Amino acid sequence: MTKGEPFVRALFLIALGFLLSFKSIAGDIEAGLAAYKARDYESAAHLLRPLAEQGDAEALYMLGRMYHYGYGVQRDGRKGMELITKSAKRGHPEAQLSFAQMLDVAGLYVEESKWVRKAAKQGNGAAQLRMGYLYAKGRGVPKNKSKAVNWWRKAAKQGNAGGQNKLGFAYYNGFGVTKDEAEAVKWWQEAAKTWRRAAGNGIASAQYMLGTAYLEGNGIAKSGAEAARWYRKAADQGYVKAQTSLGALYYYGRGVPKNTAEAVKWSRKAAESGSANAQYNLGIAYHLGSGVPKSETKALKWWRKAAKKGHAGAKRKLSE
User: What residues contact residue 263 under an 8 Å CB cut-off, 6+ apart?
Assistant: First the structure.
């Protein structure tokens, strides 16, 4: 044996140990994610917890979500936030976006924009969409229509329906780009295709957006009936925006027979879940006695709830 052979052998054993350890971690992560997707949350938590303790970014993020929503573990928002924050600092793009959302709620918009940018630069479509929004509103960054459109375009080109939709509106309104209705329709059609695929897989947010595309005729033939059909699918899953919109369709008789009792039913579901628009609409129903016995007391109650969330119409009603 030469003098260098023990050293080479030691390096080989270290590398082999690292490789086996990496394969084991990768295998456990895959098993944990598979259990999560199968909604076997207790097994997922059991598999992911030791990996999170080792600092694995994916495990930290997934376990953080589980604590946040109470999946397979006792719900603990603070614990969920801590785990997601650790994951974000280890470079996990979805965790970075989630951490940015926490900063947004806290009103720390400049810090939020920094973390959204980190995720967007890694190619996260949702972060790119959000970065466009921040530039469009001048929230945490200087207002810049051109940069907003550039980020929406990045999201759109990788199949993000929100980015495709925003790019369509940018072209339709000449926002940061030369007005081009044909280009707007092209991107709206792409968004509708993306939403349809996701909606068919039962994703409530996509069902809601597809319903909205049908209602407004964005990239798809306008159809109140199809809008109502997709809104109902999402509303039945508890998607609050869809419940609010479905209530409005029943109130006005768009795509469905006018039915004030159904309008109140769906508006109440959304209002009780915190939708300011639904709370305002429910207040109107009580004010007019539409679908419910007339009650100014209950109308004021719901308008006050909506006004606390900044709803302009509710504030006007309270000032009358």
Answer: 247, 248, 250, 251, 281, 285, 290, 291
